[in-house]
Specification:
The structure is a homodimer. By secondary structure, chain A is an alpha/beta fold. The first copy, chain A, has three domains: 241 residues, Divalent-metal-dependent TIM barrel enzymes (TIM Barrel, Alpha-Beta Barrel), CATH 3.20.20.150; 123 residues, Vaccinia Virus protein VP39 (Rossmann fold), CATH 3.40.50.150; 187 residues, Hnrnp arginine n-methyltransferase1. Chain A contains 19 helices and 27 strands. Chain A has an eight-stranded parallel barrel with strand order 1-2-3-4-5-6-7-10, surrounded by four helices. In chain A, strands 16, 17, 18, 19, 21, 22 and 23 form a seven-stranded antiparallel beta sheet that branches. Chain A is elongated, with a radius of gyration of 32 Å. Chains A, B: One of its GO terms (molecular function) is protein-arginine N-methyltransferase activity.
Chain lengths: 667, 667
């Protein structure tokens, strides 16, 4: 969905004259070229280890260092197989591999491209680890695989199936290699687009991989009526969706048209791609794709003014709150009217003579009838505004009490009460909603305490603490909220989480036991989204084994906000699980909801990115496997935290974040 | 194999009078008692979290703190199931569990015993993690499981099989729990011995687990003719083998005899256990069972005098060397005689008239015929002694050159040459065998440079470096050595390795990428032992693709001591793999070998303990799975190191010790 330009490269299978190749490509406007590192005429001398580097290929003096550094992707010899079954070949190819890698390092290439041939990649990975560990220069590894394994296809030809194994096979080559490389984020994949395209689920799985580039062979193009090379509609879609996920495009193979035409076609294709509606979320999220942030702790830390600024700009959230408040005000008025009619008819029957007294008391009664709305955690006042608007719309008389613990926000709030809302009944109370006592009690309490995973900013604890502020039978907005998860594959998010903070081994462990707020792009859902925890307000309270509701020391329902849930998913396609995507939805009141669950996402609401919940050890899952995940919401007097564990068959992750050791929400 | 005493405890299912129970047990000579923590008459109040501790059970004033601290194992309530499918039961039992644990902590019990009921142990483990993380007091957890799962047995009854699943099931409960607890070494297992005993392989697997105790129900005893309780022969064997692996014995259940008789029987049983031959290795290893040591680096570091002392005491090794040297001397003399006969006959034919000259030269010839034996890495001289002895035995004339790089050892060596060997031809050369030049060259070189895993003290590099010291066609003793591995299950060794050095997360990573020298006791072999790397001396040298032997700059065969090997095992029984046991054997000369491979172990040779090679992530393996392990021996100009990776199905460990980052042998 990124709004970037398309970046295209040109591959030369042989390059007898480097300077000519580069000139041609740049002249045609390609951004880079892909070149073999070894000159095909070169025959190597045989020496185990410490061979002579530099003699086996072209001199590096032909191009300027800048060109080598930015324009050239070096391709290692196709035939290299350091995982050969033959010990002799294995050792020989290992030595050649290291020779070529050393040469790439010497040239300072930005990326080295290599080919995988099978799932046997242990020795390749081992040598690349050594190479990368000993490299100062941050070389990227581009791992080239076909999308379809012809070998498997031929082996399977007689079988009457959907060739899924032939589509799976190269994906296994890549993910096995990536796994052996520790899911290192410097390792990307380059997929060759085949003439026959795979099933949608295979394509979608690839879109969850860190695709650095796609190879588009010139054979995929056919000439249109005017003689220009074009792609089929299906291929167009694949190319566009890959480029939307940040892939670059490498044109490769024999030219059947002027090389510039291919590039011009790709540019046009990208420009005329299906128009994405002007979604505020998409433009808001631009630049934040797959960028990890630590969740806020608005209870423990006071938000700064910049954060308020951002959140108050949400075009949808406060609309929804306003509608919900209006609905609640309407319902309360209706209820009161019914009660008052009941009262009056009762009064008439019981005590007709008191009529004058009741009528004379009318004015004070009208005053009493103002509906008390408490905004708990009012911040700089957006929900006060929404409440006043709702009162105007429903023609209700409201008394608004704005409670806020952040002193800076209280200053703004008080100023607004004096100036903007001076002819309204708005009072500001500075304090923690869990510790104050206000009377009269509220008919409605309104709060916005939800995090990206629903309860993860301690809304349940805050609202339970403030339960004494609400009249019996009063309304809480929100009324209910739920958290959701879906198991996902995303090597990119996992690798980013692992090294997110200045890294030592200890910090890496912590990073993988933490929720991360992130606009996820480069990921693939392994199952359906499922509900985790639900919270209602006002809370029903715990019952004892005789069914009696228990009360706390304040005489309010005793609540228990600890939770645990076990969820199960059946795997539909071989994959690797790296963690969960986490979401929430929330019933404000009536039928007004806010949601960041993809299928019900409140259109245009930008206040929340989802969360990524990593697992410490990525798990391989096979079609038919069951993923079992258990989440706990734990608490002690000082903090709330989550723990989680995932099991697949006999495999299990460690228990994450035990005793809240890596991430916690302070009370 | 340990020579300790048997330690027995007595379990009380209910204990109405603590002091009386303890007195009775101590009076009968039991070492400890097992008691329920909760009094059966106690009915708990229901309060989520933070319940009142102390009211629900007996007062802790009844016993002295010393008794609580050393004599009492507290048993948690049997029925506790914090992993119940019912959320209400789950939460309730979790709260009860924590209440009982808090009480155990308060009493300072040395061990807490709990029961497992199924493989669902996530929540139990989670709560125990929290308990142990927040405990200053080092409580041990004794995890009680039956050996046979009656539930599975009944479910399987109709099936015509060996009930292996009913024997597997409780082992799964335990290992799943242990896995969830991170294989923590504070967690042990207590197995209840059943009336019907399991197949041998099941028993052997249990012997690889950290068994803290076995429960021997009194129902297993029958009364002998004299009316004393005794066990069947099969049960005797089980009890003895468990106690040999450090298990304590808990007698439990209704008494059908005087309680003292059970204990007296167990003592007798232990004393009269099958006599273990007086193996020097067993007495040498006593106290070293499962104790991890870092391998020596005799090349990089000089050995100290204590180490020489220990090694020189080996009653077998130098005998074997002496025999091998004698054999080599005999063979050389025979060869020379044949050559000389050939020469003489040749001489006769070609040049009969020169006979006098040859005879006249006899004395100097005799001198020349002294066989030059170089002892490379002579240390304080044991191999010099072996050589001189061998010369005496074979009536050979030898010239011994002792080469040693350790200055301290050279002092001792020189002193011995002057005093002890003053009438023998022994010269001492101080220097590194890879860098010195001596003439005449040696007929025989003798060295003892092997580590517990064969080449892991750099014998190949040292002997290749010294290859120039050996005559063409000369003899190297040793002639060949091989390393071996077997995949093993050993939670104890794994946990010990992980926390071996002052531990931070980084060090734990390193600890699991290191070879450990250890006399392994509490482990179970998952497969057959297999060969890893082999080395021959003198080395044959590398051939090029035309079959020509390549030479190095000295004109000696170019050697390549890098190796890689992939090994496979088919798993015979569900298990958990924690690493490998590593061994070596060595052909000295002729048919004289030294070996620490269990099946061919040189009897009485004490110089080497095996190695434990851990894997970072223990792997669950199922019957029928294939374990694939690849080992690399890598080198650069400064060091040699091993890397390894293990794959089982779709699971794989990370690549261990990449680029030698955690363990290395310096050249």
């Amino acid at each position: 969905m990124a709004n970037h330009e398309i970046s295209c490269g040109l591959e030369y299978i042989i390059a007898p004259d480097l300077q000519a190749c580069l000139s041609e490509a740049l002249h045609a406007n390609f951004a880079f070229i892909v070149l073999p590192i070894v000159h095909p005429r070169f025959r190597r001398s045989f020496l185990p280890s410490g061979g002579t580097v530099g003699g086996f290929t072209r001199s590096d003096m032909i191009l300027s260092p800048q060109d080598w550094n930015s324009r050239i992707v070096g391709r290692l010899s196709h035939y290299l197989d350091p995982d050969s079954a033959s010990p002799l070949v294995r050792q020989r190819h290992e030595d050649c591999l290291n020779e070529e890698l050393a040469y790439c390092r010497g040239l300072g290439l930005p990326a080295v491209m290599l080919n995988l041939h099978s799932r046997n990649v242990n020795n390749l990975a081992r040598n690349l680890h050594t190479y990368m560990d000993s490299s100062q220069h941050p070389t990227l590894i581009w791992t080239c695989v076909p999308m379809l394994c012809q070998r498997t296809l031929r082996a399977q030809e007689s079988a009457d199936n959907d060739n899924i194994e032939a589509w799976n096979e190269p994906w296994y080559w890549w993910t096995t290699f990536h796994e052996r490389m520790g899911w290192d984020k410097r390792i990307g994949v380059v997929v060759e687009i085949p003439a026959d395209l795979p099933p949608q689920e295979v394509l979608k799985r690839w879109l969850g991989e860190p695709i650095k580039a796609i190879i588009v062979p010139t054979t995929l193009f056919h000439n249109n009526k005017k003689g220009y090379p074009v792609l089929s509609r299906a291929h167009q879609q694949v190319v566009v969706s890959m480029v939307e996920h940040d892939a670059q495009v490498i044109v490769s193979g024999a030219r059947r048209s002027n090389i510039e035409y291919y590039l011009q076609y790709l540019y046009r294709l990208w420009k005329k791609r299906p128009y994405v509606a002007d979604d505020p979320m998409l433009s808001y999220a631009k630049g934040w794709e797959d960028y990890l942030q630590i969740p806020l702790q608005p209870l423990a830390d006071n938000l700064d003014t910049h954060t308020y600024n951002v959140f108050e700009k949400d075009p949808i959230k406060y609309d929804q709150y306003q509608k919900a408040i209006a609905q609640a005000l309407n319902d309360l008025q209706k209820k009161r009217k019914e009660e008052s009619i009941n009262n009056e008819s009762n009064t008439e029957i019981i005590n007709t003579s008191a009529k004058e007294i009741i009528q004379g008391d009318n004015t004070s009664k009208e005053n009493e009838r103002a509906i008390t709305v408490m905004v708990l955690g009012a911040g700089r006042g957006p929900l006060v505004r929404a409440t006043l608007n709702a009162a105007d719309i429903t023609n209700s008389k409201v008394k608004v009490v704005a409670v806020e613990k952040n002193p800076c926000a209280v200053v703004v709030l008080t100023a607004q009460a004096k100036e903007v809302w001076r002819d309204r009944d708005v009072s500001v109370i500075s304090g923690d909603m869990r510790q104050i006592n206000i009377s009269p009690k509220a008919d409605i309490i309104v709060s916005e305490l939800l995090g990206s995973w629903g309860d993860n900013e301690l809304s349940p604890e805050c609202l339970d603490g403030a339960a004494g502020l609400l009249k019996n039978g009063g309304i809480s907005i929100p009324r209910e909220y739920k958290s959701y998860v879906v198991p996902i594959s995303s090597a990119r998010l996992w690798a980013a989480a692992r090294v997110a903070n200045p890294t030592n081994a200890q910090q890496m462990e912590k990073n993988l036991e933490t929720l991360w707020v992130v606009y996820m792009q480069n990921k693939h859902d392994i199952g359906e989204i499922k509900e985790v925890f639900a919270f209602e307000h006002p809370e029903k309270g715990v019952k004892n084994h005789e069914g009696q509701e228990l009360l706390d020391y304040r005489g309010l329902p005793l609540t228990d906000n600890r939770r645990s849930t076990t969820l199960r998913w059946e795997v539909q396609q071989d994959n690797v699980m790296h963690g969960f995507g986490g979401y929430f939805d929330c019933l404000l009141y009536g039928k007004e909801i806010i949601s960041i669950v993809p299928s019900t996402h409140s259109p245009g609401m930008i206040s929340w990115f989802p969360v990524f919940i990593p697992i410490k050890t990525p798990l391989r899952v096979l079609k038919g496997d069951t993923i079992t995940a258990t989440f706990w919401r734990c608490m002690n007097p000082r903090k709330v935290w989550y723990e989680w564990i995932v099991e697949v068959g006999n495999q299990a992750t460690p228990l994450h974040n035990r005793n809240g050791r890596s991430s916690e929400m302070l009370l």
